[in-house]
Amino acid sequence: MTGEVLVLGGYGNFGKRICAGLNRHGVPVIIAGRDTTKAEKLAASLAHARGLAVDIRRDLAAILEREKPTVVVHTCGPFQGAGFDVARACIKAGVAYIDLADGRDFVRDFVELDAEARAAGVPLITGASTVPGLSSAVIEHYRPQFVSVESLDYAITPGQKTERGLATIRAILSYVGKPLQPFAGHPKAFGWQDMRSWTFPVFGKRWLANCDIPDLDLLPEAYGIRDIRFGAGVELGFMQWFLWLLSWPVRWGWPLNLPAASGLLLTVSRWFDVLGSDTGGMYMRLRGMGHDGQPLQKTWTIVAENGDGPNIPCIPAIVLARRIHEKGSGVEAGAYPCVGKISVEDYLAELESFAVKTFEAD
């Protein structure tokens, strides 16, 4: 193994931030993607990086055999409906694997690879992103104060001017208006419906709606949560409500292919950037029973300004790739989701140089 970290989609919205984050720690990276020019341009701006042309559908196995990276970080979404071909190629090559998958089925079913990964002696970690990486870290942070965590209500909302990628838009549109698989406390829910609002410190009220994420399956199982609800929202209220309106024809069964319009909707959304800000955040409200036998509630919020929000989903991949590169502890062989693998302290240490604040309340 070369000690390098191969980042697939390395010049994309999240990939470039992961490469920069690893570079800050002196970890050598290979910036991989189909566009050689983009890969090499980014590599030229970093001290320990090189660009490489890679098409994961055609030549990944040969690339892994030739380059022999220590870790592959897979950022090429969307993961909804995707298979495990990249992870299986890593098993065959004996290379550790990390992805930023947010596809509920993809992350939940990833354990199918566990026996193969253990036999090969390599770690395969899925969902190394805000959910379930940060969400589980916050639960772990407060868990000692609870006898039991019974409900979890949380959401993410980026600023309008924050950089956003096409894959993220396509992932959201894949379930807008569609029935979501039942989850704890909610036997029947639909994507981007059940509108509600939350008032954040720093930037105030944002509208939120149902999102389909791996946590809906993973966190109730891991922590015994009986009622979980996750939402997401854009900054501009009229855009949030417009997407809510689009969800109804899909729910009624009209033949709308919203993912096919991802590029158009992303372009149109950028027309309104002048009306928004570069500030976004995430809140988590945990409720349950304290050790004194009384109800207990804890609320944790993270706010990112100056367009620094997209760095937050990148932290688990950076931390885990560093651990594997440095042959540290806590990264065992097998295939598993990023639940309880990163601490809040890990996050805040990596985010020190960014305009990020956290808030705690009862």
What is the strand and helix layout of this fold?
Layout: E1 5-8, H1 15-24, E2 29-33, H2 36-44, E3 49-53, H3 60-67, E4 71-74, H4 85-93, E5 96-99, H5 104-109, H6 114-120, E6 123-126, H7 130-142, E7 146-157, H8 166-173, E8 179-180, E9 189-190, E10 196-200, E11 204-210, H9 215-223, E12 227-232, H10 237-251, H11 262-270, E13 280-290, E14 295-304, H12 315-325, E15 334-337, H13 344-350, E16 356-361
Parallel strand pairs: 1-2, 1-4, 2-3, 4-5, 5-6, 6-15, 7-12
Antiparallel strand pairs: 7-13, 8-9, 10-11, 11-12, 13-14, 14-16
Which short descriptors sum up this protein?
about 350 residues; alpha/beta; Rossmann fold; Dihydrodipicolinate Reductase, domain 2; 7-stranded parallel β-sheet; 7-stranded mixed β-sheet; 13 helices; 16 strands; about 25% strand; NAD(P)-bd_dom_sf
Walk me through the structure:
InterPro entries: NAD(P)-bd_dom_sf, Sacchrp_dh_NADP-bd. It comes from Asticcacaulis biprosthecium C19. The chain has 362 residues and is of the alpha/beta class. The protein has two domains: 5-130 and 310-354, Rossmann fold (3-Layer(aba) Sandwich), CATH 3.40.50.720; 131-304, Dihydrodipicolinate Reductase, domain 2, CATH 3.30.360. Helices cover 33% and strands 25% of the residues. It has helices at residues 15-24, 36-44, 60-67, 85-93, 104-109, 114-120, 130-142, 166-173, 215-223, 237-251, 262-270, 315-325, 344-350; strands at residues 5-8, 29-33, 49-53, 71-74, 96-99, 123-126, 146-157, 179-180, 189-190, 196-200, 204-210, 227-232, 280-290, 295-304, 334-337, 356-361. Strands 3-2-1-4-5-6-15 form a seven-stranded parallel sheet, with helices on both faces. Strands 10-11-12-7-13-14-16 form a seven-stranded mixed sheet. It has a two-stranded antiparallel ribbon with strand order 8-9. β8 and β9 form a beta hairpin. α1 (15-24) crosses α12 and α8 (166-173) crosses α11. The longest helix has 15 residues, at 237-251. The radius of gyration is 20 Å and the shape is globular. It starts with a strand and ends with a strand. The mean pLDDT is 95.
